[in-house]
Amino acid sequence: MGPATEKASSAKARRLVEMTAAYRPSDNAPDEFIGADDRPRGHWLEFFDKMAGLGADDVARRFETIERNIREQGVSYRAYGETTERIWPLSHMPLLISEKDWAVIEAAVTQRAEIFDLLLNDLYGKGELVRNGFLPAAAVTGSSDFLPPMVGVKPRGGRWLNLYAADLGRGPDGQWWVLSDRVQAPSGLGYALENRLNLTRAFQAIYRDMNVRRLAPFFQAFRGGLATLASRSDPRICLYTPGPYSETYYEQAYLARYLGFVLVEGADLVARDGLAHVRTIAGLKRADVIWRRIDADFADPLELKSGSQLGVPGLVETIRQGNVAVVNALGSGVAETPALLGFIPALAARLLGEKLLLPNIATWWCGQAREREHVLSRLQDMAIAPAFGAAPTRSFLGGSVVGGELTPAQRQRLAEAIRARGADYVGQEVASLSTTPTWVGSKLEPRPFVLRVFAALGPDGKFHVMPGGFCRISDRLDSRAVAMGAGVQTTDVWIVANKPVEAVSLLPQNENVSIRRIMGNLPSRAADNLFWLGRYVERAEATLRLIRCLGKRVIENEDLTAEGAATMQRLRKLLIEWGAVPAKPKIALTPQSFLNTALFNVDEFGSAVSLAQNAQRTAAVIRERLSVDTWRIIVELLQGLQNCQPPLDEAELLEQADIALQAIASISGLAQENMNRVAGWRFLEMGRRLERGVNTCRFIRSFGMEQARGADFDVLLDLIDSQITYRSRYLIGVAPYPVRDMALLDPYNPRSVAFQTARLAEHIATLPVLRQDGMLEAPNRIAINLDADLRTTSANAVTSEFVLSVERRLMLLANSVGARYFLQGANVAQAEKQVGLA
User: Fold this and answer.
1) Last residue of a domain, one of 429, 463, 487
2) pTM for this structure?
3) Per-residue pLDDT at 516
4) H helices within 170-211, ranges in order?
5) 127: Cβ–Cβ under 8 A, 6 or more apart, which residues?
């Protein structure tokens, strides 16, 4: 070993000691790094050794990279009850689990998934467990998640569960314990995948050298398992989301994109003629498999919760007929009921003939006399929770409480409530969570965590456990539960193997996969939002161009002349008419404050920042259809405007308008160069073209018609970004007919109205039709007529009335596109043939 190598090795050893020497686990909780023998576990020591080899500065840069990537990708979530998104809180340190530990977890999670599947099959089938006294009927029917309409229904494929999750922690003895089960609509899969991508990107070499097991085989098995539930070789699999205000909407959109599923809301689905369909721009298209992320009782307002705005009327009957697979099956949420937890060990023996491999938290349901008295006798030491989870209950508990933390009066009231209606309560052992190393500031500290592990039914009919999971870490040492709220982080879970692992991806391995080049059946809701995203972005651009034109003229003092003053007044008038500035402000606005309002005032619906907000809000709904780069620029556009500190002076205003316009140009460029020319791109383009055509008509009517003067024509050329083209084409100064021609009729100018109508006619002509009868549908007919009129009109025949008629016909076309393609009503148009509907 040479002197340089020896020096580097010594520095590395010193950094390892500095990193780990001060780490002190809690005395009353197991720790992942330090074992029960007070010695570091080998795989953790190897990880920290490799971290020490990077150097403190390099590690800090990698941590910064993780945080920057999370922000730029827009990874987010909502805490319960919040309307705004939070940045995803990813810890810098993974949770490491050895292969030996993982083998126990894998077997136990698989076993529990099988138990719950058999349990649900019995509860909704023969009912022998209740009939023979192995389960009290009240422990089942007391849950609002038990759905009587599903009794006697056989799910497609015969399985009630396709996805199961268990929340785990180490118990006081150092062994893993099950804290709770997730069978309703388990969340966290997408976030686990995001965590993996971000941490491995930062520590790629360490990840590879430690032989971390890959996640792709699990997702491959899950996707394959869902595909086997369909009756067609090329099924349409939908991910059914509650919508963009769901706490985990980002994850749902991410999973839909990653797995190639169609992201749908209730309004996108329709049950008709015994089949489930997706509303698309080509009419109704059959949905074969629906992976739901909504609670089951919201799924069908006809047979379940009648007030649901998320559901699909008739969906239960479609399931009953066996024509659609909904996973997990409606009604499976009853298995999460805390009242059933105490019966799981006996059910393992009854249903599988096996002993439970991992214990769950000891639980006593107070609906039984002996268990109730046991809980009351130990009320001081127990956690008391509603027996039927988060569902509405007659108990006065808002959640779990620890008897010893209540006042004597509160404890007495709780005891009386348990005696009066014991069935509403469970008593549980108080669980102290085990801890894992976490970076806090610049050092390692132990923090409590919960590990969620997933099992999915594969195409082979067996449960496959994801080699990793979704880990939540609390910032409080005494935490007894970890929910996604303030002070909680998440992290990736590395299952460390003893030998190199095979790299696997979701790409098909079969070389005989048929090649397809198709437009795709775009859901109507997605088409609607892509269309409006295009319109909002274009509307923001037009507003910014007006602001820039006015700002330049304020700086140049062009309002000193009568002609210049009239032009500036028209610019102000148009901004007021567009809702960027109030028509009757509370105080008189100076030119500077007028421009600040138009650019930054969120209270004005037409201001640049409000339009950017609408663009981001619309983009968030269709995030699965946008590239990371596109989303990042949309976010930057809004943040760039929001981060300004008005009032700005005129020069600063122009600079911000230019920056925002550059962001919009980047969005347009990405759409042109990176988006596949399928239906989604066409609707985004149609929104932009329609909005640009309408806006240009308004520009022409304000600055290019009979009352216009030289300064007005100059503004018009600025607004349509055609100054250079005009000057190169016409050696004379601005003249009415050439300017009108360039703005309205020139088919070669990408800013002219004629250019927009030509592109609109092309886009609409390629879209699907509902009936093959040779007749033009309304959008196609309007676009062709409008395009023909502009092609055959000469500049000297253009009048204000003609321009206004073009503007109105463009707005009519927009409404016609919406009525034809954005199929959201109950009487949705459908394709001509229902038999064998694709």
Assistant:
1) 429
2) 0.88
3) 57
4) 189-202, 204-209
5) none
